[in-house]
Design a protein that fits this description.
Layout: H1 7-14, H2 18-26, H3 33-46, H4 54-59, E1 64-69, H5 75-88, E2 94-99, H6 104-117, E3 122-124, H7 132-139, E4 144-147, E5 157-160, H8 162-175, E6 181-185, H9 191-206, H10 211-214, E7 215-219, H11 225-236, E8 246-249, H12 252-264, E9 274-276, E10 293-295, H13 298-314, E11 328-331, E12 334-336, H14 350-353
Parallel strand pairs: 1-2, 1-3, 3-4, 4-5, 5-11, 6-7, 6-8, 8-9
Antiparallel strand pairs: 10-12
The chain binds alpha-D-ribofuranose (RIB).
């Protein structure tokens, strides 16, 4: 049995690019009649039907959007994906989600597959600063919206001010009196994490202190709980007088791992070590020691990115939008103080904060966040 003809076979027979075939299938208005006829002849000759896109072919309009996130195992991206779904579902548009696992090579593979699938656009959280593939996609007619990083790149972007987020986190630790703070950061290719460290340094400088004196930057290869555990072990191995008294992790998974190690080692949090994360994923408030963190409007990030993409589709903005400034949506981060940094958030001490909230036996401890 002969193998099914691919979009590449059609492109080769018609003498055009894969992106042009994708445009003929999904955005025929963008292709000259002569080219469109050549491609349609090749499709007929090869009896080509894009896999999984037969309905799109009939519908003449792509009824799916692709999204490539950094890590599907991170609850942050689960919440962002929920926001995307909630914007697309009323339009009858399906969402195809893939994970780059913070690997540029894997992100690239996923982008190629999504373009071949003929999606009407792609939402992506970049795994590196290399934007060439996004430009190529846009040129071939597949709009790209950057999610969670990409402000100022010239691409439509929905993101949070991560420099401000890093400042809020470390300013909070400085306000509590910490003067030796570990900053656990991820791969230098993850822009949003780099920006958080920039913010951390600005907070120290704003306090008239030397960032190189106050901060101990601890890079990790991946932004997950295992790496957070590992860093906490290394910090605990330091002699007491060289050990930081506060840890700022650039995401909540790292902070979860660090907390797990500290508590298992019998370290008092926040008494001996304060911990601050970033994201405010659902588990952050449910931990045995609720996590102080920087809240990102995760659902809004996803919803707004999908909405921006549909706006681009509507305005047919794609390869011909050269010269128009890329639309950007920037959200503000918010500091959420909980027990992992602030002893006064201990439910047993709520009366110090607000007599009304003093825990009573029948109501159980007041929520500490
Ligand atoms: O994936 C790494 C981090 O980038 C996530 O936890 C979230 O903070 C995103 O901005």
């Amino acid at each position: 049995m002969r193998s099914r003809p691919s979009v590449t076979d059609v492109a080769r027979l018609a003498g055009v690019s894969v992106g042009t075939v994708s445009n003929v299938l999904n955005r025929p208005g963008r292709v000259s009649p002569a080219t469109r006829e050549r491609v349609e002849r090749a499709i007929a000759q090869l009896e080509f039907v894009p896999s999984g896109s037969a309905r799109q072919l009939r519908a003449g309009v792509a009824q799916s959007v692709g999204a490539v996130v950094l890590d599907l195992g991170n609850p942050f991206f689960t919440a962002v994906t929920r926001g995307i779904e909630d914007r697309l579902t009323p339009e009858g548009i399906a969402l195809i989600v893939a994970s780059s696992d913070e690997l540029p090579s894997r992100e690239s593979e996923r982008l190629v597959l999504l373009e071949q699938h003929g999606v009407r656009g792609i939402l992506v959280t970049p795994s590196s600063d290399d934007l060439d593939q996004y430009e190529a996609l846009r040129r071939r007619g597949t709009p790209v919206v950057l999610m969670d990083a990409g402000l100022g790149t010239g691409f439509p972007t929905v993101a949070v001010d991560d420099v401000l987020g890093g400042r809020l986190a470390v300013q909070h630790l400085l306000d509590l009196g910490h003067r030796r703070i570990a900053v656990v950061t991820g791969p230098s290719t993850i822009r949003q994490c780099v920006d958080r460290v920039v913010g951390a340094r600005l907070a120290v400088a704003d306090a008239g202190l030397d960032p190189d004196e106050v901060l101990v930057e601890v890079p990790v290869p991946a932004l997950n709980a295992d790496e957070g555990e590992e860093v906490a072990h290394r910090l605990l191995a330091r002699q007491e007088q060289w050990r930081p008294t506060g840890i700022f992790c650039v995401n909540d998974l790292l902070a979860l791992g660090a907390l797990r190690t500290l508590l298992r080692a019998g370290v008092s949090v926040p008494g001996q070590m304060a911990v601050v994360g970033y994201d405010d994923v659902p588990f952050a408030s449910m931990l045995m020691v609720p996590l102080t963190t920087i809240r990102q409007p995760t659902h809004q990030i996803g919803w707004s990115a999908a909405d921006l993409l549909l706006t681009l589709n509507a305005s047919d903005a794609g390869a011909d939008d050269a010269g128009r400034p890329a639309p950007e949506v920037q959200f503000a981060p918010e500091l959420v103080v909980r027990l992992s940094s602030d002893p006064s958030r201990d439910p047993e001490r709520a009366s110090e904060r607000d007599p009304e909230r003093a825990p009573t036996r029948d109501r159980g401890p007041a929520q500490a966040d």
